[in-house]
């Protein structure tokens, strides 16, 4: 089988996200990591590339060198798709340059640092026709995909309540120290954008709210917490969301939820039942109804949908996790590149990244206007 030639920008030796993407890319044997620029320090980048066993000539100083060299190679040799795993402020210029030079793109979220930048990428992609994925990782979990399918098939009926929580506590070690909070890129608007918490994890919750329901959120009302006057970016927030007059919900995100690790919890209720899923226990999907005992669905069983089963790699009872979730997204991208797409929502596309940037900006706008309802659609 001819493998897709993958390039990587960022994600070097000390990067957690780099490990996640590399494992995911190798999971279904669709990709071959061909080259990249892994670190701003070229020596570190070369050392890391050698560790990966790459051809020394395909380890590049920067994106400019990579694009120039790869574009001069025969079409059947050059890198086809590039994963952008850099800090937020580099996403837009790198993705733009890649699109303009004919590459497919896989980009970490948030897509850009502004909604305007996201719309520019969308316009370029519409001209080039390139595959463009934004890695909202959690949509790749088999039981999340099962949840989406059940909702689409009307198992829980007409949706009227969505409650999504994403709680972490990691920023506590930085936020309470003036020097530390002033010297992390996550809290620097020049590098991270206008939002920290909503931009980092709140956007996952927003994407999940639209991915699972298949319906776009119409309005938001936000109350954000910056904690200290000298801190320019939110580190906690609550966002009321409205799909329609009769379907409403709440997104709760925090990076100061002391003691929490990665508590991403999704609850969706309809007039016939409800569904609950927790990222820290991803193999359990709970189905609630008023006339039957609680049902627990698990991955790998024949009762699950084809969409769920396609991303299930182990027999029932064998835990799968975040590497598998990202791997399923890479599988969806590979199928799209090869024109073999099987399922709607097999990977989060550019439009979802654009929606995420709109959500971030409108949420901050709602807070700054005094916690008022703001329309989420242009």
Automatic annotation (TrEMBL):
Output the InterPro entries linked to this UniProt entry: Gfo/Idh/MocA-like_OxRdtase_N (IPR000683), Gfo/Idh/MocA_oxidoreduct (IPR051317), GFO_IDH_MocA-like_dom (IPR055170), NAD(P)-bd_dom_sf (IPR036291)
Annotated GFO/IDH/MocA-like oxidoreductase domain ranges read 144-275
A family per Pfam: GFO_IDH_MocA
| Gfo/Idh/MocA-like oxidoreductase N-terminal domain location | 6-136
Name of the protein: Gfo/Idh/MocA family protein
């Amino acid at each position: 089988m001819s493998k897709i030639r993958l390039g990587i920008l960022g994600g070097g030796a000390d990067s957690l996200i780099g490990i996640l993407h590399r494992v995911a890319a190798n999971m279904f044997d669709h990709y071959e990591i061909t080259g990249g620029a892994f670190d701003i320090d070229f020596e570190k980048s070369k050392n890391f590339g050698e560790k990966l066993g790459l051809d020394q000539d395909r380890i590049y100083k920067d994106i400019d060198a990579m694009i120039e060299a790869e574009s001069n190679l025969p079409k059947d040799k050059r890198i086809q798709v590039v994963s952008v795993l850099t800090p937020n402020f580099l996403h837009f210029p790198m993705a733009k340059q890649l699109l303009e030079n004919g590459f497919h793109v896989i980009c970490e979220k948030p897509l850009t640092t502004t909604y305007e930048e996201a719309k520019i990428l969308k316009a370029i992609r519409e001209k080039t026709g390139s595959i463009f994925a934004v890695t909202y990782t959690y949509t790749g979990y088999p039981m999340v995909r099962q949840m989406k399918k059940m909702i689409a098939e009307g198992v829980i009926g007409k949706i009227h309540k969505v409650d999504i929580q994403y709680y972490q506590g990691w920023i506590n070690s930085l936020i309470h120290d003036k020097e530390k909070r002033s010297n992390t890129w996550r809290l620097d608007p020049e590098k991270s954008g206008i939002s920290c918490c909503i931009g980092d994890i709140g956007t996952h919750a927003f994407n999940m709210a639209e991915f699972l329901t298949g319906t776009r959120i119409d309005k938001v009302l936000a109350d954000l917490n910056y904690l200290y006057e000298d801190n320019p970016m939110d580190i906690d927030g609550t966002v009321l969301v409205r799909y329609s007059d009769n379907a409403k919900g709440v997104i709760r995100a925090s990076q100061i939820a002391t003691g929490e690790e990665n508590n991403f919890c999704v609850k969706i209720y309809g007039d016939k039942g409800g569904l609950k899923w927790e990222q820290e226990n991803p193999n359990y999907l709970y189905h609630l109804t008023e006339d039957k005992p609680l049902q627990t669905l698990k991955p790998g069983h024949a009762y699950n949908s084809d969409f769920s089963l396609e991303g299930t790699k182990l027999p029932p009872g064998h835990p799968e996790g975040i590497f598998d979730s990202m791997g399923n997204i890479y599988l969806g991208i590979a199928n799209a590149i090869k024109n073999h797409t099987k399922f709607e929502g097999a990977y989060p596309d550019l439009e979802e990244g654009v929606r995420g940037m709109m959500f971030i900006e409108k949420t901050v706008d709602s807070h700054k206007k005094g916690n008022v309802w703001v329309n989420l659609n242009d």
